[in-house]
Write a structure and sequence with these properties.
With about 100 residues, this protein is an alpha+beta fold. Helix content is about 15%, strand content about 30%. The protein is elongated. The chain binds iron/sulfur cluster.
């Protein structure tokens, strides 16, 4: 589920109106997810590549590279699976 930044705005009642204060919630921006890999821990065994190939890849030297550091929410489930599958616990997800 997307994390949403919210702004609550209050209106003062018009002069002479009943003392009702309305509260409206406005969506400002979607908070992005960020993929972080601790490359000191990573052993480039490519388990995460198999789970989320649009985010992770091995380069020509078989080192892990992150293709997309801020993937869409549609990939959150796959990335959570990659976090869980990583034998070195090298992957973390941060919400900015
Ligand atoms: S699963 Fe973990 S150890 Fe394996 S390549 Fe991905 S980040 Fe590195």
């Amino acid at each position: 589920m997307a994390s949403i930044g919210l702004l609550r705005r209050r209106w003062k009642p018009a002069p002479g109106a009943a003392g009702v204060i309305r509260v409206r919630t406005v969506c400002l921006t979607e908070v992005s997810m960020r993929v972080v890999v601790d490359f000191k821990l990573c052993e480039s065994n490519a388990l995460c590549v198999g789970i989320a190939p649009s985010v992770f890849e091995l380069d020509d030297n078989d080192y892990l590279v992150i293709l997309d550091e801020e993937p869409g929410e549609d990939l959150r489930a796959d990335l959570k699976a990659a976090v869980a599958a990583c034998p070195k616990q090298a992957i973390s997800l941060a919400d900015d």
